[in-house]
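Methods — Computational structure assignment.
A single polypeptide chain was analysed. Its primary sequence is given first, followed by the predicted tertiary structure written as structure tokens.
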Amino acid sequence: MKSSMVNWLIHDDMDEIDIVQFTPFLGRKYVKGRQTYVDLCDNDTFPIHDTGEIVLELGYVENSTLLYYHFRLPLYDLDFRLFTLGRDQDIHHLGFYVSKHKLIEVYIHHGSTSLHTYEMSPNHFKVRIQEIIQPPTCSRRLFLGWKEMTQGKII
């Protein structure tokens, strides 16, 4: 049976003097941050909100601080294998790597993040968000148009 226990190395970007961040893309580094080891996190039973509780217990932040969590795939750099930890599904994604690697690096960013991994589509440059102002009958027209186009066809 594969073990789901893993040790986390938490990199925190809050310093008393400097607020540090990831350096720009290509050759990205994480500079001036603190590191803390958290032992034996069970990925099978570990909900994402427990990560916030661990950070509070370590005294890194106040309860109202907005935090962004990321984990780095072992043996890869920070440019291409940095994934978010924002939902329980992300913890399960992290769990795929636990059986081979017993130390997972977790990065915490305070306040805002410049990384394009958090709550974004991987192709965010191709996405255009446009507000469409239509009367409430718009959905009815779309349905009727769809029905007219599909009459006589098996869907």
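Note: The radius of gyration is 21 Å.
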